[in-house]
Amino acid sequence: MSFCAAPLTARDTRHHCRVFARGVTLIEVLIVMGIVAMIMGAAVIGSGQLASSKMRHSSTMIAGAIRVAFSRATATSKSVRLVMDFAENEIWLEEGDQPMLVQSKDITGTGGAAAATTAEKQAVDEGSRIVKGPVAPRAAFREIDPMGLAASAPGKGHKPLERGIKFREVQTAHDEEPRKEGRAYLYFWPGGQTERASIQLRAGEATEDKDAITLFVAPLTAKVTVKDGAVALPKPQDDRDISDRQDPGAF
Questions:
Q1: CB atoms within 10 A of CB 159
Q2: For residues 195 and 221, is the Cβ–Cβ distance under 8 A?
Q3: What pLDDT, in 10s, does the model give residues 41-66?
Q4: Who is most buried in 77, 122, 164, 204, counting CB within 10 A?
């Protein structure tokens, strides 16, 4: 049965048919636009542009935290560290209760600070069992937050990486080998100094070097330089190049 087969005049019939035709055309246009949007969205995701954008956003957040830590250590005359958690893919800042110098071969991976996780505490206990005798006290760190939230509610100062973005590996001057699990720490000291560091991010479970992004931290200026791909921590003599070189990827 035709929608236009109503007991109307010929003029009314033609009018209603045109209205119906226009309605069908509008629906078809909306459907086509929706399909095109889905295809374009899938193309963006498939091309890696979305993952790249998220990694850039996460690297900007980390660079911002590094600037804050560098400034806070100088302003408060206290040691500050950036904590990078591999399990939760989060970062936050902590402040030390006493001056400290990092130890390059500390078994806990904390650089000589007090243990913060179960694995670190086990490493301290094992070290104490092997090495008998008096042990120097370790500096303890407490969580801080620039907005003052972490002091009253622990964990509020934690900043997660973008969804799907993870730490690939982190190496600082006090680490002999890159850290790929647990927590990594980057220290800042009063007077305006930090450690050499290489922070690699990846999207999801990507394992290829080309699918990563690397943040280099210069020790004297805390300037962050971003490089595409997974790049190892440069040797100490290369620090000047990282710190002073003009680079469009620097923060």
A1: 14
A2: no
A3: 655 455 457 788 899 999 999 999 99
A4: 164
